[in-house]
Amino acid sequence: MTATPAIGARTAGPDLLRSVFRRHAAGVAVITAARGGRPVGFTATSLTSVSAEPPMVSFGIGAGASSWPAIRETGHVGVHILGEHQRELAATFARSGADRFGAPTAWHEGPEGVPVLDGTLAWMVCRIVARVPAGDHRLVLAEAVAGDPGGEGRPLLYQGGRFNALRD
Question: Where is the Flavin reductase like domain (predicted)?
Fold first, then answer.
C-alpha cells in the first residue's frame, strides 16, 4: 500500500507549528523570578507536570526573551496558575516592554525571594534543576519546594491566539 499525502498537508516549519498549536487549548501560567533584586516574569502556556516524585514541572522560554537572562541565572522560579479573572494579568506578562510588576499587579516576596503573584488559582516556588537547549527555546525543569493550591475560580485558557474561559 502506498501512502498518499493528506489533503492540505504542508511542510513542517514555524508557521505550521504555530497554526497547529492555535488549535490546542492550554492552561495559562506566569513564571516569575528575581534578578538583581528586581522581579521579572512572563506568561507561559508550555507548563507541564513532569514527575510526582519528586514533584517536578517543565516550561519553555525563548532564548531571546527578556526574562531569559534571569531564568538562566536564578536558582528558583515562581509558577502561577491563572484564573479566568486574570486575562489582563496574562496579557500584561505576555506584552513586551510592559511594566509587569507595576500597578495593578499585586504581588509579594515569597520563599527563596521569588516574586509571588496574589490572587492566582495556585502557585509554587520551584528550584531549577536543568536548562535544556531546544531549538530557539530552552526547556526548564524545576522541582517544587513550596506552594499554595488554594485559590478560588476556574482556570484561564489560551487557544486560537486569545485568552479564553472554560464553557460548560
Answer: 21-165
- Which residues, listed in sequence order, are joined to residue 29 by a DSSP beta bridge? 44, 81
Nearest-angstrom CA–CA distance, 14 and 19 = 9
Residue 13, judged by CB atoms within 10 A of its CB (0-12, 13-18, 19+), counts as exposed
SS3 label, residue 52: coil
For 1, what's the count of Cα atoms within 13 Å in the CB-facing half-sphere? 3
Surface-to-core class of residue 137, CB atoms within 10 Å of its CB (0-12 exposed, 13-18 middle, 19+ buried):
middle
Q: Is 3 contained in some domain?
A: no
pLDDT tens readout for residues 40-72? 999 999 999 999 999 999 999 999 999 999 999
- 92 neighbors 98 (Cβ within 8 angstroms): yes
Tell me the residue range of the domain where 88 lies. Answer: 25-148
The beta strand positions in 19-65, using DSSP E, are 26-27, 29-35, 38-44, 48-51, 56-62
CATH number, position 36: 2.30.110.10
pLDDT confidence tier of residue 1, bands split at 50, 70 and 90: low
Residue 19 has what DSSP assignment? H
Within 10 angstroms of residue 48's Cβ, the number of other Cβ atoms is 14
- Domain tally for the chain? 1
